[in-house]
Specification:
This protein is α+β, with helices and mostly antiparallel strands and 321 residues long. Helices cover 44% and strands 23% of the residues. It has three domains: 61 residues; 155 residues, Alpha-Beta Plaits, CATH 3.30.70; 70 residues, 2-Layer Sandwich (Double Stranded RNA Binding Domain), CATH 3.30.160.20. It has an eight-stranded mixed beta sheet. Strands 6-7-8 form a three-stranded antiparallel beta sheet, with helices on one face. Helix 1 runs antiparallel to helix 2. The chain is globular, with a radius of gyration of 24 Å. It is found in: Cytoplasm. Pfam families: PCRF, RF-1.
């Protein structure tokens, strides 16, 4: 019923745009014939209002993938470079948390592995809200930071890398079969704050899916049972995302603009020194205010990446305009 309602709303919106466009064009023609500039101005203003609505719906139309409407998991992993890259991973985690808050989404921290001196080695969050995966799915890849390191006593410029991985939460309508004999389950003590029980029992759970090499872990809950259940959900989601990616790669294998979200593929650079610039290497979208981007102003980058992906999928389709 939810899917039906979304489809009905989309069809109604297209028909309404068609009707309003036709009405405003007729008004402009009528006003020009009768020399009534007021009618022409009113119709032109109506077209401008329509444009804003159509642009908003264009973005919504890009979020029509099989799992785009789902909640999503987002993982951040620091790269080589010790404290510097671990601090960068923590900055990325904050950036996505701030973006989600701006969108009105709920963020739940599932696991965090703190760095030795500062920052984090890795973290996993769950972002809950309509189209959360659709918005975030293009953020998977390697993110590069260039800045004067606050951890370098000589104030030298450093380049750091961290990886982001995004995959959808699988709802109950999607069946993913996992052979438990293909998995290795490890338990360990949770790290960080959480009280006596968390730090003195093996409540954290790590599951390794041997055929694919996928590893998931959860230490959010106080009980091993709950962490195990959450970890199984995460593994199902990762396997589902891998299947979605296989389908997309197969569909795009002939496209020059094919999207690659594999490890080692740098998608965006954040330069804080010697100049201020954030640049997406896939779309060319730039911002000269890194502080705003790192505070969650990511939507323009996401919109461009989504449009780029849609163009890649439609390459070779004849333009019937």
């Amino acid at each position: 019923m939810r899917e039906r309602q979304l489809l009905e709303d989309g069809i109604s919106a297209v028909r309404r745009v068609e009707d309003e466009l036709s009405d405003n064009i007729e008004l402009i023609e009528l006003g020009e014939e009768e020399g009534d500039e007021a009618v022409v101005r009113d119709a032109e203003e109506g077209l401008r209002k329509m444009l804003a609505d159509v642009e908003r719906r264009q973005v919504e139309a890009m979020l029509s993938g099989e799992a785009d409407g789902n909640d999503t998991y987002l993982e951040v992993h620091s790269g080589a470079g010790g404290t510097e890259s671990q601090d960068w991973a923590n900055m990325l985690l904050r950036m996505y948390t701030r973006w989600a808050e701006r969108q009105g989404y709920k963020v739940e921290v599932l696991e965090v592995h703190d760095g030795e001196e500062a920052g984090i080695k890795s973290a996993t969050i769950q972002v809950k809200g309509h189209n959360a995966y659709g918005w975030l799915k293009t953020e998977s890849g390697v993110h590069r930071l260039v800045r004067i390191s606050p951890y370098d006593s000589n104030a030298r410029r450093h380049t750091s890398f961290s990886s982001v991985w995004v995959y959808p939460v699988v709802d109950d309508s999607i069946e993913i079969d996992i052979n438990e004999s293909d998995c290795r389950i490890d338990t360990y003590r949770s790290s960080g704050a959480g009280g006596q029980h968390v730090n003195t029992t093996d409540s954290a759970v790590r599951i390794t899916h041997i055929p694919s090499g996928i590893v998931v872990q959860c230490q959010q809950e106080r009980s091993q049972h709950k962490n195990r259940a959450k970890a199984w959900d995460m593994l199902r989601a990762r396997l589902y995302e891998a299947e979605l990616q296989k389908r997309e790669d197969a569909a795009n294998q002939e496209a020059a603009s094919k999207t690659d979200i594999g490890w080692g593929h740098q998608i965006r650079s954040y330069v804080l020194q010697p100049y201020q610039l954030v640049k997406d290497l896939r779309t060319g979208v730039e911002s000269t205010s890194p502080s705003d981007v790192l505070d969650g102003a990511l939507t323009p980058f996401m919109e461009a990446a989504l449009a780029n992906r849609i163009e890649g999928n439609s390459e070779g389709v004849e333009d019937i305009d």
